[in-house]
Amino acid sequence: MATAAKNEADAQYVYRFGGGVSDGGSGDKNLLGGKGANLAEMASIGLPVPPGFTISTAMCTRYYEEGETFPDSVRREVAEGIAHIEGITGKKFGDPADPLLVSVRSGARVSMPGMMDTVLNLGLNDQTVEGLASASGDERFAWDSYRRFIQMYSDVVLGLDHGAFEEALEVAKEDKGFTLDTELSAADLKALVAEFKGLVDEQQGKPFPQDVHDQLWGAIGAVFGSWQSDRAKVYRRLNDIPGSWGTAVNVQAMVFGNMGDTSATGVAFTRDPSAGHNAYYGEFLINAQGEDVVAGIRTPQYLTKTAREEAGAKPLSMEEAMPDAYAELAAVFDQLERHYRDMQDIEFTVQQGKLWMLQTRSGKRTAKAALKIAVDMAAEGLITRDEAILRVDPQALDQLLHPTLDPSATRDVLTKGLPASPGAASGAAVFDADTAEKWAAENKAVILVRTETSPEDIHGMHAAKGILTARGGMTSHAAVVARGMGRPCVSGAGALSIDAKAKIARIAGREVREGDLLTIDGATGEVMAGEVATIQPELAGDFGTLMVWADEVRRLKVRANAETPLDCQTARDFGAEGVGLCRTEHMFFEADRITAVRQMILAEDEKGRRVALEKLLPEQRSDFQAIFEVMAGLPVTVRLLDPPLHEFLPHEESEFAEVASAAGVDVETLKRRAGELHEFNPMLGHRGCRLGVTYPEIYEVQARAIFEAALDVAEKSGEAPIPEIMIPLVATKRELELMKAVVDRTAKAVFDERGKTVEYLVGTMIELPRAALRAGEIAEAGEFFSFGTNDLTQTTLGVSRDDAGRFLGSYVEQGIYAKDPFVSIDVEGVGELIKLAAERGRATRSNIKLGICGEHGGDPASIAFCESVGLDYVSASPYRVPIARLAAAQAALKARG
């Protein structure tokens, strides 16, 4: 209790901004959240920011720790914050004559667009609405603000049925023959307020709260509460945002974009967030409030005349309709971009001709835009090359490394919307987020089709290959979230008529039902029936420039996991510096050689096995030749046979007769042998080097194929590959010694036969905890270690990666693991073993080569760990090689400090 009392006495939880006061600034994002820190910063550099205060993220943490209650000290601080706003605006909170109204908004450390709650126009009640009407001289505006407040507060704070209020609004418009909210008169809105209040009374059994202080604390609690909403949790999980961070709450004097034709609200970016062009990009609405733009309720107008003309739109742009406010806004754009040295995402309001800034933050952007903006800003001298490298999220490059629509392919265009997030996607149309998630889990590609998306759709948007909406602009919720996720999105496709309940969309006399194939092109806005062919991307221009810069600063080498010539060529085209893992067992499953493999397995003695292996030798040699030709002059790590033998035998009854006939044995013999090879836990069974110890002839033939192929390629190309022969699943030095002897003996035999040699190494895959612990003595025999982090994670945690999906999500949500350990290295456990093995291996053999070849090789956080422990290379799947190159560069820059 004493500690709590001390916290209450000493802690500051409320920070003011505006009116010449800034208790915080842009460096306080962890405490004030991104929105609060940037509001304070904008106020401090003299921009027009409505005054307000921020309740810190620390209070959010305490709010949950103390049973969702507020200490008296915070109530006093909030009262002082309200007094601060009153002093600057000259208005009083709750004053029936000229009331102060406030907005209550969330603000996490990092942008989470639309995931948490907002309440606008707070402070209105049956008395203050009359005062607002009188003071503003605009009765319609006052009642419009009150109906908006009741609707929003009832949804966000009281948790009432949002649809009932929407329905009442639509009926009110229909009764008058109106299509827009703005056509409703003051009397219409007054009647609607009465209806809304009746809905509140009916749904919660008590009237809408009239005490403005009760309203305020209800809203603050709701915003803190929204941090733990389902949609916020999903967004945090998808974006690796810790639940412990909490959100701040920003309370700010209201400014009004709904005060007639001289007022407006808008969202803008200082550069194009889709393509990255250095041009203002944004939308606004006259006589509206901010939620109207971001929620996609009305289709907004363009910011600039150029954008309007390019789109062929008729409604005037802000540049044309409000030239003075636009000119001021353009000057603010330039000031903010120079100040923050990054592209900014801005919310603004114009109240009766006066511009107010409501938010700025580093804008979410596509990978293409991120590359262009980073490279352009470096060229402009706004940032350094190193900063440009650090600006691009490596994972986002995935958006650029996959096919786009073939421009020459036939397209059955149904309609065209706004190109909200680039990229192309085909899939089955689905009309709700739950179905999208369910079908995606069944490996079906889906396009989520909605009238407009809401934050509750986040899980379906993530599951979908692309998103299509009938309403909303290029700064709507769907557009912003899709860009952040790297999902193609077409928004504002106004010709779409969607019946979500019937699961059908109608477009120009045609119908799209659930399950029908659609293709969307987020670069053009086209919506097409069926599936459209794709082409491979061109990775030049800004991509190539940034990769050159990244390669100049990274220390870690980047290789690829590849076992086909096509994979190897793809990897080399993406800048791979060799192969870090070539799995030879994949070659054994080819249809033209599986019979020989099965003959080898079924053989009763070494002689029989060698007969079958001789049939496989030329096939294996040919495989390695094709790989070595692509990778001539580069290291290629070949893992000798790893899986248990039973994996190569038939499992279905119908296959046994076919295999028995091909192998020249009877069905019963085959079944008996399959039974003998069956293992209860094959992951820990007779596999890896244990096969080589039992049947050394298998590894001998593989080694011969490798050396003969290497010599052939060296002779043909003049450039020898560097085979690194990897013995899998080693737990002891003796296992590696035995297998190295087989490889070395075979190498000598081949070199003697051919009269030529090639450089080669023999090493092991460290994938067992014992191997990591005994790495010092294993390094006496091994010339390199490749950490097989997939199996090392399984054997260290005692968790099967094939089955862990059933429960690992719950483990991450509850903080048992910070991330899925099969996606990002478990630094405290698996990472500690890697660090220990690296230290002990190098103590024995100072020049031992160290790398990783599990799926973690393409994960930026895992790559940063590899940099920290001084590994020599990482190996990733071919399409993740550029991601690994950029992540390695970022890790090197961060390590320098």
From TrEMBL:
The gene is ppdK. Residues 444-525 form the PEP-utilising enzyme mobile domain. Substrate binds at residues 583, 639, 767, 788-791. Belongs to the PEP-utilizing enzyme family. InterPro entries: ATP_grasp_subdomain_1, PEP-util_enz_mobile_dom, PEP_util_AS, PEP_util_C, PEP_util_CS, Phosphohistidine_dom_sf, PPDK_AMP/ATP-bd, Pyruvate_phosphate_dikinase. Residues 540-891 form the PEP-utilising enzyme C-terminal domain. GO terms for molecular function: ATP binding; kinase activity; metal ion binding; pyruvate, phosphate dikinase activity. Its cofactor is Mg(2+). It is an enzyme of class 2 (transferase). This is Pyruvate, phosphate dikinase.
